[in-house]
Write a structure and sequence with these properties.
- The chain has an eight-stranded mixed sheet with strand order 8-7-5-3-2-1-16-17. The protein has a seven-stranded mixed sheet with strand order 9-10-11-12-13-14-15. A two-stranded parallel ribbon has the order 4-6.
- The radius of gyration is 18 Å and the shape is globular.
- The chain is of the alpha/beta class.
- Strand 13, helix 9 and strand 14 form a beta-alpha-beta unit.
- It has a single domain, classed as Ribonuclease Z/Hydroxyacylglutathione hydrolase-like (Metallo-beta-lactamase, Chain A), CATH 3.60.15.
- It has eleven helices and 17 strands.
Length: 313
């Protein structure tokens, strides 16, 4: 709780020090969630979530394939459903073809039950990890009540997102071994079993790795090495120093990285990516972020807000 409060305060101080007074900020929310130019492009919209509870807001990315299919990876805590719902409505989305949980912590699956009840869902995709908490139980009950297909993903699985985007599952391996008193003190254990998904569209690539800690990153790097290389990366564990080890950063070597958190979890992590030549966006400061490509290895990035200066450096 103290660390979350520090992150929020740091973000507020940085925003105020940049001169970004609310009345002066250009807000491009409507542009980011305008789907009129999506055809032929793989677009990922990183949604800025606002927590209305004691839980951190968490992650949510809305992906649209070049041929119009929709994938949602994670959906924040239950109080952020309004943010996810508003974004989906702004895009004109009525059906989510793929609803993907990176792992079953509340700040990633908290809004799943509400999404399953409010939208037509093609399928829910999770790892095989079983986590007996109320939020997981809520969405599993919603799956059963709505008879929504539920698919288990493990290392080595592949699927197509639409007709031209390949999704590869790089982690976790099948056959999870639980320790004796699971789920007591299971935060790192669960985070290290986050799904790692690589999406490839032509010459363009995106990597999502949930909340892997450095020990989990080491395992993935050991298995895949340079195969992790991706142009766009959703930074692990909200940009905290539990993650983003040097070996992992070097293996991915992203051109663009996006951090999702209520505040700046660790400024040094942000600066490490910047020093290595990565362009870094943070929804705490930049608001919602859209990254789009025709598959040619080039990307169009749109942020909800402008930075008045590069004060994070």
């Amino acid at each position: 709780m103290k660390k979350r409060l520090y992150a929020l305060v740091l973000c507020l101080v940085l925003v105020l020090s940049s001169g970004m007074v609310a009345e002066e900020i250009a807000d491009r929310y409507d542009q980011i969630f305008n789907a009129s130019q999506d055809t032929g492009r793989l677009t990922v919209r990183f949604v800025q979530l606002t927590s209305r509870s004691d839980d951190k807001s968490g992650d949510c990315a809305i992906l649209t394939s070049p041929d119009g299919q929709v994938m949602v990876i994670d959906a924040g805590n239950p109080s952020t459903f309004i943010d996810v719902d508003n974004a989906l409505q702004a895009l004109g989305i009525k059906r989510i073809d793929y609803l993907v949980a990176s792992h079953p912590h509340v700040d990633h699956v908290g809004s799943f039950a509400q999404l399953i009840e409010a939208y037509e869902i093609g399928g829910v995709y999770t790892s095989e990890l079983v986590y007996p908490n109320s939020h997981s139980q809520n969405y599993l009950e919603a799956i059963e009540q709505t008879q929504t297909p539920h698919f288990i993903l493990t290392e080595g699985d592949t699927m197509m997102f639409g007709g031209s985007v390949l999704v590869e599952v790089l982690h976790p391996a099948p056959g999870i071994k639980y320790y004796a008193d699971y789920p007591a003190q299971s935060t790192q254990f669960i985070n290290n079993l986050s799904l790692v998904l690589k999406l490839t569209y032509g010459k363009s690539s995106f990597l999502f790795g949930g909340d892997l800690y450095t020990s989990g990153e080491k395992e993935v790097v050991g298995r895949y090495g340079d195969r992790l290389r991706s142009d766009v990366f959703k930074v692990g564990h909200h940009g905290d120093d539990t993650s983003s080890s040097k070996a992992y950063r070097e293996a991915i070597s992203p051109k663009i990285a996006v951090m999702m958190h209520d505040g700046i979890a660790d400024l040094n992590v942000y600066r490490k990516y910047r020093r290595e030549g990565t362009t870094v966006y943070h929804i705490c400061v930049d608001g919602c972020v859209s990254v789009s490509t025709t598959g040619d290895g080039d990307y169009t990035v749109l942020t909800q807000y402008d930075r008045k200066n590069d004060f994070l450096n």
